[in-house]
Amino acid sequence: MIKSVVSKEYQDLQKKIVQLQEQWKQQLNPEIIRPNLDKAAMEAGVPAAALTAIDFEISLFQQWIEEISAILINSNPELEPKLSGIESLLNEEIAIRWIEEAFAFNHVYFASFAACHGLEGWIPQFLAETALRPYLQLTAEKVQHEIHHSNPGAGCPVCGEPVRLATLKEEGKKVIHCPRCLAHWHAKRLECSHCGNEDHKTIQFLTIEGDAVSQIQVCGTCHGYIKIIDTRQYISQPSAALLDLNSIHLDFVAQENGYHVIGEKKETN
Amino acid sequence: MAKEYVKYVDVTKCDGCRACMVACKNWNDLPAEPTEFLGSVQSHAKTTADTWNVLQYIEHENGKGDLDYLFRHSSCFHCSDAACEKVCPENAISYTKYGTVVIDQDKCVGCGYCVQNCPFEVISLKTYKDKNGKEYRKSHKCTMCTDRIEEGLQPACVTTCHTGAMEFGDKDAMIQKAEQRVKEIKDRYPNAMVYNPQGVGGTHTVYVLAEKPSVYGLPENPKVPTSAVLWKDYAQPIGKAMIGATTMAVVGAFVANKFFSKKAGNDAEDGGGSHE
């Protein structure tokens, strides 16, 4: 198994969740995703998912949340009292709201929801996000043929998630992966995904001693970073979501060195 | 058992760049080995203790009177029935769960039996000096980067190959791939074949060869030497049984002696008494 700072138990839990999401996605009828991609809007950086009509099935969403709770309790029985009340809270109205807010990644709403109902802060957003992803992933699958690049700073062209993970493929091509919706697209090797900087003098690479496959590309202009994993060396290709999780040590190293998940362009007069 | 992996080497795709040799030296931290000019572009005559893979360059006159310039990445085959493992008296050589054959350097006593018995001549001894200036030897060979496989990574040589001549993956898939490739190249190389010799139980490096094995200096039908089988499967177990028998004899003799000498001692006492 590939070495990781993440505990075996947590990796196994995440693997189960990723498998479940894949199963759920298979159950969905692709017809419920109706993309209405507007070239101009896409060029301006509007995520494709925002231009797509998705028919959510609320009862399915509620059922998935129950399944996730079951998996969480199974892996850690101590969570049972914390998760037991969720199903009764999650009526149709709340479920619709959760989908909308998870879609918009509105962590403020979820934090206040948790506070209102005496839940631990991470619970509502984690459940909503996990159950939303199959829809995002199906959307990404459906529009993948239209996704060729992303606008600097706009994040994932499908779901808007900030760019943070790339792999190296055949002939050293850099492919950016979205760990949220699993969309992928090519990028220049010497280009900052956050600010579009292509000046080789200000783009640097941090490497970890003894780690033969990973590097962190950092930008001296916007102080953003992305992780680059040479998956050509892997025997089997892991899912982008698990790759992102297992390389979390790189996030720590980058952030401890003063780089950010989202680049900040400093205004000069 | 974990998944068995195979390194697939298609020599017809190799362009002789030697990046595999460099990647191997780099990953395994092996020192450079200056060599004499061998009359061709080939750097080393064969693999050595510090050079675990060597690119062979062969000028071969094919049946049509044309000259073929053949390349082959040569390194340990990781036999399923490995002669080196069989002959090692210290059990220093073993199979891993991935099917690779590795040497435990702590157990190796440098006897050289593995070097003599390897049908492919890929193991070599290296001489070291300890702090008292006393010489000792250890045997070395390719490990198929077992340390990388354990981390889910492919061997260094495979990773670096830029023509796709080498691939690494599931045993059955790789053998199937080799068979398929031979069909594709039969027009160009009528003698092309998959080299996965069954005399050593199949190998974990499977070649697509453009010509007969002998052209590459490989045995047509390598076998675990009969002497090795005799040694490991008969001589050693009998030897161990003999050790048991010998031990019993020694113990028996000791007990008997003790008893006998006591008697003799008494006799001596008696004898002493009779003098008085």
Automatic annotation (TrEMBL), chain A:
The keyword Amino-acid biosynthesis does not apply. Keywords: Cytoplasm. One of its GO terms (cellular component) is cytosol. It comes from the Bacteria. One of its GO terms (biological process) is protein maturation. Residues 191-260 form the FdhE C-terminal domain. GO terms for molecular function: ferric iron binding. Transmembrane segments: none annotated. This is Formate dehydrogenase accessory protein. It comes from Neobacillus vireti LMG 21834.
UniProtKB/TrEMBL annotation, chain B:
PROSITE patterns: 4FE4S_FER_1, 4FE4S_FER_2. [4Fe-4S] cluster 4 binds at C88, C108, C111, C114. One of its GO terms (molecular function) is 4 iron, 4 sulfur cluster binding. One of its GO terms (biological process) is formate oxidation. Residues 5-35, 67-98, 99-128 form the 4Fe-4S ferredoxin-type domain. It is found in: Cell envelope. Keywords: 4Fe-4S, Iron, Iron-sulfur, Metal-binding, Repeat. One of its GO terms (cellular component) is cell envelope. It comes from the Bacteria. Signal peptide: none annotated. InterPro entries: 4Fe4S_Fe-S-bd, 4Fe4S_Fe_S_CS, FDH_Electron_Transfer_Unit, Formate_DH_Fe-S_su. Binds 4 [4Fe-4S] clusters per subunit. [4Fe-4S] cluster 1 binds at C14, C17, C20, C161. Its cofactor is [4Fe-4S] cluster. [4Fe-4S] cluster 3 binds at C76, C79, C84, C118. [4Fe-4S] cluster 2 binds at C24, C142, C145, C157. PANTHER family: FORMATE DEHYDROGENASE, NITRATE-INDUCIBLE, IRON-SULFUR SUBUNIT. This is 4Fe-4S ferredoxin. It comes from Neobacillus vireti LMG 21834.
